[in-house]
């Protein structure tokens, strides 16, 4: 119970320091359609997932670190998450995701947990699929799971 209270306190602090804008997606999908390659935060059939990490205020030309308030807030949240990691077992990204999911309805939270289990299985099925109908079915399953995950706001 104390762990839940501590986590709730951390989340309240995190929400208080967070900006009101939605969190930028760090997952990008590489989609090939009609011979053209597109990158998007929306999944597509047969997409390749590309994980990206945005820059955090380093100015290449001067070598000095220039940070905005958003980067300072993110680092503060990361520090708090690291401090309570022995209690929660969650890293900073997991704590942020937990906080965002707390704003979802209980049903949406349940669906997100189910999709957390479904996505790795669908990705493995796509990797294992050969060609033809088997591959198309695996890609469709993965696209449906990724689309539902994004639509629910699980990320």
UniProtKB/TrEMBL annotation:
Keywords assigned: Signal
Domain of life: Bacteria
Position of the signal peptide: 1-18
Record's protein name: DUF4124 domain-containing protein
Organism listed in the record: Pelomonas parva
């Amino acid at each position: 119970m104390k762990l839940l209270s501590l986590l709730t306190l951390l989340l309240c602090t995190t929400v208080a320091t967070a900006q009101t804008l939605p969190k930028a997606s760090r997952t990008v999908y590489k989609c090939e359609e009609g011979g053209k390659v597109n990158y998007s935060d929306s999944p597509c059939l047969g997409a390749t997932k590309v994980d990206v990490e945005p820059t955090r205020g380093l100015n290449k030309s001067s070598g000095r670190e220039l940070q905005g308030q958003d980067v300072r807030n993110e680092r503060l949240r990361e520090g708090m998450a690291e401090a309570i990691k022995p209690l929660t077992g969650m890293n900073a990204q997991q704590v942020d995701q937990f906080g965002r999911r707390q704003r979802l309805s209980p049903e949406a939270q349940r669906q997100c947990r189910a999709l957390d289990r479904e996505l790795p299985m669908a990705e493995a099925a796509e990797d294992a699929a050969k060609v033809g109908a088997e591959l198309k079915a695996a890609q469709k399953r993965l696209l449906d799971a990724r689309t539902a995950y994004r639509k629910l706001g699980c990320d």
